Amino acid sequence: MSVNTQEYAILVAGGSGTRMQSHLPKQFISIGGWPILMHTIQRFFSYNPQIKVVVVLPADQILFWKQLCTENNFTLPHQVVAGGNSRFASVNNGLAVITGEGVVAVHDGVRPFAPVNIINEAFAVAAQKGNAVVAVPLKESIRKITHDGSQALDRDMYRLVQTPQCFQLSLLRQAYQLPEEAAFTDDASVLERLGEKINLVPGAYENLKITTPEDLIWAESFLQSGN
Which residues have a Cβ under 8 Å from the Cβ of 95 and sit 6 or more positions away? Predict the structure, then answer.
């Protein structure tokens, strides 16, 4: 990767807290004394102190987020933009405020434990090959539901996709000019519609997307273990 390549991160945080059984959106729930989203932002600055971070939040949560930053003396620089009615629209809104070229990571705001070495690998591969998507092998057996029951599949042929997903900005901008489709479940699926080959890089099981109360218990334990 060229030392002159600017790096960006779009952190998408549109959660409502429903699956968390909480009135507080999950990105604002505190773990280790900080809202989850602050931990996520910090990870990217730990990787690259010069990175430019864009946080995408529902419009009605932006003021509350700014209050949380003040209360927690959280001063890592980031731009906040309002999200859209879907993840596709929210990422598009984040892209719209990035005017330069370089490499951008799109990352879930509630994945606060992405290892720095994995972030580094994803950016490096994307800078070289156009894109890089973090993924991990399945730990358990997998079955496909069929019309007459189910069928065992070879789990070695599948991966669980995580974030960050990193892209050369010119490619991702081109992809996000496509009309939105229901099949666009992540950014890689949008880029794939252009006919691009997706490059997988090894992820980590600790790079958990925090969505349930059980995830919170694990996250607190993980932080207490010194990570």
Answer: 10, 104, 169, 172, 173, 176
Q: Encode the chain (227 residues) as per-residue pLDDT tens digits.
A: 444 689 999 999 975 545 555 678 999 999 999 999 999 999 999 999 999 999 999 999 999 999 999 999 999 999 999 999 999 999 999 999 999 899 999 999 999 999 999 999 999 999 999 999 999 999 999 999 999 999 999 999 999 999 999 999 999 999 999 999 998 999 999 999 999 999 999 999 999 999 999 999 999 999 988 76
Cis peptide before 213 (omega within 30 of 0): no
Q: How far apart are CA 127 and CA 119, in angstroms?
A: 12
**Concatenated DSSP letters of the chain:** --TT--EEEEEE----STTTT-SS-GGGSEETTEEHHHHHHHHHHHH-TT-EEEEEE-GGGHHHHHHHHHHTT-----EEEE--SSHHHHHHHHHHT--S-SEEEEEETT-TT--HHHHHHHHHHHHHHSEEEEEEE-SS-EEEEETTEEEEE-GGG-EEEEEEEEEEHHHHHHHTTSPP-TT--SHHHHHHTTTPPPPEEE--TTS----SHHHHHHHHHHHHTT-
d(CA 8, CA 190): 19
